[in-house]
Design brief:
The complex is a heterodimer of chains A (508) and B (162). Chain A contains 23 helices and two strands. Chain A has 508 residues and is mostly helical. Chain A has a two-stranded antiparallel ribbon with strand order 1-2. The mean pLDDT of chain A is 86. Chain B is mainly α. The chains are: A mainly alpha (508), B mainly alpha (162).
């Protein structure tokens, strides 16, 4: 306790607070701009922090990380263009609320769910870092594979009544993730003789293409259709307020999603997007009214955002306790630790306990500042719904091209983005859900590496997936999820067939 | 039941495209040297490609056999789309984007982006010269300052004028 108080004294100084606030503002802006991503911002800011104090430098980077993770939801909710892959889950219901003239409600739930998820994650880091790290250590390739398969069943949940098309999109996403270098042997495959494909398809090009470019192409079909809101948007208006009913629906969801997000964040390699989609899918599966999802269910936003943001502090658990970075951002931040003479691992807690205390406190302070800054900025953010399509979509197209170029420095990837944009446009026109494609692409490497390493561990036997309790549990959950979703789809199909039969006078 | 090209709808064409593309992938994978213990380099891609061929076939059959009432309805034609049809508009935007990306290394970020924004503004129905000009100059300028001065990331320079 004394240590934490001394840490608080180190953090509550003007310089550190200003650095956290700067990081948060940069992060929110970067996260909200389609094409720019948080790892890029953290990597670029890294050299700037070398001249600062260790806690000051890391405070700024953590601010960018937290702000960026939240910022992705702003563009997802307001213009249906997720700034980060994880925010694509938020867009499912966020854009529906915005189109219904309730953007303020969606933004508020997105912020509060993010902050609650962030706080749960911060306290998990402070109080349970060691036991959670032990849990993360018990996750091997068989468990990773099983979690990947469980998450893949979300394809059914996200198919929105088009199960066959959703499965096709999910399998296509998985296939696209296998292009390029084999993650285990380093051999090339499916490069089609194109040198630029040796590294596989660019993830950022895929995300920008299927969401931002596809949306812009859909909008150019009807250029005369104007924006949702014309007058000034006031967050105090009734349609923008969160009601007691909204909270009644969302609080239990947040209470479930945040701990799941913490566990996912503590496992190296899974990340915020998996957490957001997994929590969204679980919430929809458990809901008594699943048909509301995708049409403006407030708890859909709560699940995705709390799950997404609960990952942020938890990814530091394996980094601080074991020296293992949980994702790309913590890998970059490992560099910041080392530059400041701090070597993450068990020894860090003994040799630099004062720094660790300040670092822990800094997370909580950053989450509080996140709430204040984002809430103050919200009246400004929500005005984005007033920007005319005539200005918005040309800007999004240029931002998409610029974002992919600065991330990959490759014109091939920029052309690829356009190709994915066309694919997304065709999918939207033919009512193929695009979210399963992204889920498949994210989970592909996880599933493949997990499967192949497990089979090597067990010398060719698949019994390993059933003999390890956690792996067996997740596979059972996956099977259960498939059965539940399959039965629900079948019932809906029968109901639709019966309705058609009644209309035409035939028996269903 | 008579099945001809006239009866193939969007889903059918997608299914045919999937089958053709994955047949090509399978051919490529068959030529790839496969390594790895128990599960090789190409096992998963082959399984996924084969699955897509099967799923594509199911989609093809389903799109041909299901009753017309349950097929996706064509887009509404209630609004005034202006002089050109949606397909023409989308094609022009795609062509503009290809030209923009191709022009970037030759004309540089500022000029190419400005011209592209001008073209896109017209496509999105903007007919006010001053706001278009402001967007053409303002956005590329802000992005250039942000990336090149603040983020220290270089954007494409004009090879043609070097």
């Amino acid at each position: 306790m004394e240590l934490l108080l001394s840490g608080l004294a180190q953090v509550l100084v003007l310089e550190t607070m200003a650095l956290i606030a700067t990081g948060l503002i940069i992060g929110i802006i970067i996260g909200a701009i389609p094409g720019l991503n948080v790892p890029l911002a953290v990597a670029i800011a890294l050299p700037i922090t070398f001249g600062m104090t260790p806690i000051g430098g890391l405070a700024m980077l953590v601010g960018i990380y937290k702000g960026g993770t939240y910022g992705g939801s702003l563009s997802a909710v307001l213009i249906n263009v997720p700034g980060t892959p994880a925010a694509a889950a938020t867009a499912q219901d966020g854009i529906a609320l915005t189109r219904a003239g309730k953007a303020g409600k969606a933004l508020k739930m997105s912020l509060y769910a993010s902050v609650i998820g962030g706080i749960v994650s911060d306290f998990a880091l402070i109080l349970f870092a060691i036991p959670v790290a032990s849990f993360a250590l018990s996750i091997g390739p068989p468990e990773t594979f099983a979690i990947g398969i469980f998450a893949l069943t979300l394809v059914g949940v996200l198919s929105q009544g088009n199960m066959l098309k959703g499965v096709i999109a999910g399998v296509l996403g998985l296939l696209l993730s296998t292009f390029g270098v084999d993650p285990l042997t380093g051999d090339f495959r499916l490069t089609l003789g194109v040198y630029n494909l040796s590294g596989g398809w660019s993830f950022i090009a895929l995300v920008i293409g299927i969401f931002a470019i596809a949306e812009a192409l859909v909008k150019v079909e009807r250029p005369l259709q104007e924006q949702v809101m014309v007058g000034k948007v006031r967050l105090s208006d009734p349609e923008h307020r969160l009601t007691a009913e909204d909270w009644r629906r969302s609080l239990p969801v947040i209470a479930r999603s945040a701990p799941i997000g913490v566990l996912i964040g503590s496992i190296p390699g899974l990340g915020a997007a998996v957490s957001a989609y997994l929590n969204y899918g679980i919430t929809r599966n458990l809901s008594k009214t699943p048909e509301r999802f995708g049409k403006g269910a407030i708890e859909g936003i709560a699940a995705a955002e709390s799950g997404n943001n609960a990952v942020t502090s938890a990814t530091f658990i394996p980094l601080l306790t074991l020296g293992v970075p949980g994702d790309v951002i913590t890998a970059i931040m490992l560099g910041a630790f080392i530059v400041h003479g701090l070597i993450p691992g068990p020894a860090l807690f003994e040799q630099n306990s004062s720094f660790i205390a300040a670092f822990f406190v800094m997370f909580v302070v950053a989450t509080m500042l996140h709430l204040v800054i984002a809430r103050l900025g919200m009246p400004l953010f929500v005005q984005a719904t007033r920007i005319s399509n005539k200005y918005l979509f040309p800007s999004i197209m240029v931002l998409g091209v610029t974002g992919v170029y600065v991330t990959t420095n490759s014109f091939f990837d920029v052309f690829t983005m356009l190709g994915f944009g066309l694919m997304g446009y065709i999918m939207l026109k033919l009512r193929f859900p695009v979210a399963p494609l992204l889920i498949g692409f994210i989970l592909g490497p996880l599933i493949e590496i997990g499967l192949r390493q497990s089979v090597i561990m067990s010398r060719g036997s698949i019994d390993i997936f059933f003999s390890r309790p956690l792996a067996a549990l997740f596979l059972a959950l996956a099977a259960g999820s498939v059965i539940i979703v399959g039965l629900r789809e079948w019932r809906e199909f029968r109901r639709a067939a019966a309705a058609r039969g009644t209309k035409t006078g035939e028996k269903p | 039941m008579k099945i001809g090209f006239r009866e193939l709808n969007g889903d059918s064409w997608v299914a045919l495209g999937l089958i053709a593309a994955n047949a090509m992938f399978l051919r490529d994978l068959a030529l790839t040297e496969s390594e790895g213990a128990y599960v090789s380099t190409t096992t998963l891609p082959i399984a996924l490609s084969a699955s897509l061929i099967v799923l594509g076939s199911v989609l093809l059959v389903w799109s041909l056999l299901r009753p017309a009432a349950s097929r996706p309805s064509p887009p509404d034609k209630v609004e005034d789309f202006g002089k050109y049809s949606p397909v023409v508009r989308v094609s022009v935007v795609v062509a503009l984007t290809i030209a923009y990306i191709a022009a970037l290394p030759w004309f540089g970020y500022f000029l190419a982006s400005g011209a592209y924004l001008g073209g896109l503004s017209l496509m999105y129905g903007n007919r006010k010269p001053l706001p278009i000009l402001a967007l053409m100059v303002g956005l590329p300028l802000v992005l250039m300052l942000f990336f090149e001065k603040y983020m220290i990331v270089l954007l494409p320079s004009a090879r043609l004028f070097e």
